[in-house]
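Journal club side-thread
Mid-discussion, someone asked how the predicted structure for our own chain would compare to the paper's figures. Pasting it here so we can look after the session.
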Amino acid sequence: MSQRFNVSENVRVEIRGCRDRVTVAGWDDARTVAVDGAARQDGDSIIIENTRRVSVRMPRAALVTMTHCEAAVAVRDIAGRVELADIDGDVVLSDLTGETLVRELEGDLSARNIATLKGEGAWDGDVSARGVKQIEANTINGDVSIRAIDGGMKIAHVEGDLIVSGIRGAVDAPDVEGDAVISLDAVAAVNLRADGDVVLNLPSDANAELELDTPRGELVIRTAIKTADRDENHLRGTLGTGGPRIKAESTRGDLILRARGEYEEYAAYAAYADYAKYAGGMGRQIAEQVRESVEQ
């Protein structure tokens, strides 16, 4: 069943309880919503409920809410606010220039070219993000790969491994259960604590204040630092002329700091998780690289 609805500039698309597959895409027609599936209109709202394999084309400025869907979800080319809640299935987001909020996800998440991505509750799956200006999430129960991010990143808890490359803003990841590799394109504040191995890759001209700890592992520094306090398991010092505070700890593994331009090789590892389904094995790849660096 294919339907078209004439709408105002304040249109809102509400999708509830859908199954199998849901696809939402923006188009140039600012006054029409097209739905391939059952739908109804209530004032400024287009409501789609309990439909299987629904496809929606809508004005780019429209608002989108999607709740309680057991489906693979794809949302692309939207400028209005996008809100997803209680989704059981993999989610692919692309080219969203408004705020995007994801609450309670049971599945993998792949995001490309997103202005702001926020998470509430738990995301139970792997996460791959590229070209996201800013990301903030509570709990991610899987591996995380993020690259090419202009703003900051704040994730309260990561159950798996964390790879971040090409980031130009602050990093706040205080609870990573796996390994972590962070590659900064520009030096900003870092607050990182991981149970596994940690690799920090900084630009060759980096200026920062450092606070590094490895209570059970080895601390490897591959750049010149003005040391204020150091032993085999911790370091306090200044890189270059000083600047943002970089605080990192590996509670059970090794910590490696590099600031010689060598970090580019690690950026390639983010490509393994361009889509969340490729995130498997990320921890093994990180661990192998850390061991090689320690041996060197």
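Post-session note: The longest helix spans residues 282-295.
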